[in-house]
Amino acid sequence: MDIVGRSDVGKVRSANEDEIVFDAAKGTAILADGMGGLSAGDLASRTAAAVVLDALTQAEQISEEIVRAAISRANDRVLALSQLPAGAAMGTTLVVWQDVGLGQCFIAHVGDSRAYRLREQRLEALTEDHSVVQQLINEGIISRSEARISPQRNVITRAVGLETAIEVEVRSWVRTRGDVFLLCSDGLTDMLSEGEVRQVLINHISADGNGDMAAAADDLIAAANAAGGADNVSVLLVRPELESL
User: Fold this and answer.
1) For residue 210, what is the domain's CATH number?
2) Would 60 be classed as within a structural domain?
């Protein structure tokens, strides 16, 4: 399995509150986008990503319940940190890709960090943001193009570490030969349209999934920064082993 990750502070922020971690041998990739400002957001994303990575890579078998429990544990840990005497309000988005063999994977998420699948050079969103603007889109109040410039575009409705109970969305997806999966923070999708993201990917990845994922990841970061780099920007690209299908 090939996994490539890149994270950049962007052109505006003074610190990077995103976190990416992965274990290719276990088929685990995790991206978190911290909230709370400077050290608090950084602590939230690092803590949540580390807790989930440890739980999933130590698990003997992977199930939807195991994934939910791992994210719930991360929620408890981040919330506990925020409640310490010297703590600060903090939270983080989270998106997780987990291989389960037999041509399947789990994708779990909380917040507005996203997962996409590139299949035969077609890019498909596999997650739906937990955000105010997504609710407005679903209700037909605004369009997707209007959502990209809405002043509420970064207001999320779920996050890890804000409340004792957390609602995690987990779905099982079929993966087939040549699929490449993208996990990204909103620092990418706020700067680039899905069409622009697809174009960068297919510049480097062919219809059969072969190509230079490192160059694709580098160019996604560069394109987001060229478009303004208004936020930290992070990407993970996952290409499952063909032999494991």
Assistant:
1) 3.60.40.10
2) yes
